[in-house]
Automatic annotation (TrEMBL):
Species this protein is from: Nostocoides vanveenii
Protein name: ATP-grasp domain-containing protein
Alphabetical list of InterPro entries matching this protein: ATP_grasp_subdomain_1
């Protein structure tokens, strides 16, 4: 009997990043031949996707595409849509979910699910919308409103930030009426939320890839390379589980595969504030200690998707989620538990874990051996040299080298068995 052999191509649609793609490509090369329970053999290859004219009837060669570009570059975005609709290419993330990628939809959906989204008001535009019909429409329908009254009712301090924000664009913390008006005047053509400020004890930021989440302690006021603190027990056990459930709920609900979720924690209550990111930061210079986990998870999840022919659905199915949300017999904790169950189902978690155990049995050792290899170290060095000015190279070699050595020490039991 001949053995079935299948090749799977993973496309990387990239912008300016070099660090994690090189790590991902190196690890994918080391996977070798994968064996599944049915006796088939699988090989995974990666290829960077180039941008060129395409006929809508062309057949893409990729089985899966990890997209880091389409959130701002529309030609490849349309290629992704075609590939998803016509050719069943599996996408991390799908542009069909991008319309929900603004904070606003995500806030609304999570509010309906009963999560503790801070009190939030959407304020009309400060500046007229660029449309010939605006003057008439506005004169006839725009209600006068008293911004001070809204802010006063919500209570200072408040955050004013764009409804579709990202990268701190247009975010202000306002402490009084003067700051409020200044922030609103400066918002110009941006559409703004006014949001209750949570005086948090700790900031948790979770990166989620498929059914894998890493909840990390985040310090938003530090420079990028110091924002993630290496800290293992900074949340209570209950809050830790809840942070994972919330992150995976957001992703499973919107069909996002690769996303980060920010939660403010005060007195063990979790307030999700930001969880819609088409292109979460996975730079080695941000994630450092957590970078090996991110690469391993991305590889495991994409291997699972291509090898098991996981089918991507382009549209959100809100029904099962709202059935839980609207069930008056369930309290908050029971709903969180039910959402975790729905998320596990969505990501096919049991099958995924079984796949990792049987088809990727040596992946931990493989990732360990790569992270301690000269190949990884030279990628780190070249990333440092591209990212920072020359006089800081030595300091950052020490900083990131130290954090990754710490990771290697913490995972030393995995050494050398690959
Ligand atoms: N309701 C809030 N309470 C307390 N702090 C807040 C609140 N909203 C925002 N912040 C602070 O402002 C920062 C930026 O806000 P937010 O994450 O919503 O914007 P962003 O543009 O998506 O930023 P980023 O891309 O860095 O995540 C947060 O990291 C947090 O420190
Ligand atoms: Mg944020």
């Amino acid at each position: 009997m001949s053995t079935t052999q299948r090749d799977h191509l993973i496309g990387l649609l990239l912008g300016a990043e070099e660090d994690w793609p090189s790590a991902f490509e190196a690890l994918a090369r080391k996977l070798g031949v994968l064996h599944t329970a049915d006796g088939a053999q699988h090989r995974i290859e990666t290829e960077r996707v180039s941008i060129e004219p395409f006929n809508l009837r062309d057949k893409p060669r990729q089985d899966l595409c990890i997209d880091r570009l389409a959130y701002w570059y529309y030609h490849p975005r349309e290629w992704l849509k075609k590939a998803a609709l016509m050719d069943d290419v599996y996408l991390l993330n799908s542009p069909f979910t991008f319309q929900s990628m603004e904070k606003h939809s995500a806030y609304c959906a999570m509010l309906r699910l009963g999560l503790n989204v801070p009190n939030t008001v959407l304020v009309p535009y400060k500046h007229p919308v660029d449309n010939a019909r605006w003057a008439y429409t506005s004169a006839k329908y725009n209600q006068q409103f008293d911004l001070d009254q809204i802010a006063g009712d919500m209570g200072y301090p408040l955050f004013m930030k764009p409804f579709d924000g990202g990268g701190w664009r247009g975010v202000s913390r306002v402490r009084n009426s003067d700051e409020l008006h200044k922030a609103y005047d400066e918002s110009g053509e941006m559409l703004m939320h006014l949001q209750e400020s949570i005086d948090f004890d700790v900031f948790a930021r979770a990166l989620t890839i498929g059914p894998e989440s890493m909840v990390m302690k985040f310090r938003p006021d530090e420079p990028m390379h110091d924002r993630y603190e290496v800290s293992h027990d900074f949340l209570s056990e209950k809050a830790g589980k809840e942070a994972i459930a919330i992150s995976q709920t957001v992703n499973a609900f919107f069909r996002w595969e690769f996303n980060s979720c920010e939660m403010l924690v005060k007195d063990d209550v979790l307030y999700p504030i930001d969880y819609a990111n088409a292109c979460p930061d996975v730079a080695v210079t941000s994630l450092h200690y957590y970078f090996p986990w991110a690469m391993k998870s991305l590889l495991k999840w994409s291997a699972f998707c291509v090898v098991t022919d996981r089918k991507a659905k382009t549209q959100v199915d809100t029904d099962p989620w709202f059935a839980v949300a609207d069930n008056a017999d369930l309290d908050y904790d029971a709903k969180i538990l039910a959402y975790q169950g729905l998320a596990d189902q969505h990501f096919d978690k049991d099958r995924y874990l079984e796949f990792c155990a049987t088809t990727l049995p040596n992946i931990d050792e493989m990732v360990y051996d790569y992270i301690v290899s000269p190949e990884f170290r030279s990628m780190l060095t070249s990333t440092i040299q591209q990212t920072y000015p020359r006089h800081e190279w030595e300091r950052f070699e020490g900083h990131f080298g130290g954090l990754l050595t710490m990771w290697a020490d913490d995972n030393a039991q995995l050494a050398g068995n690959a």
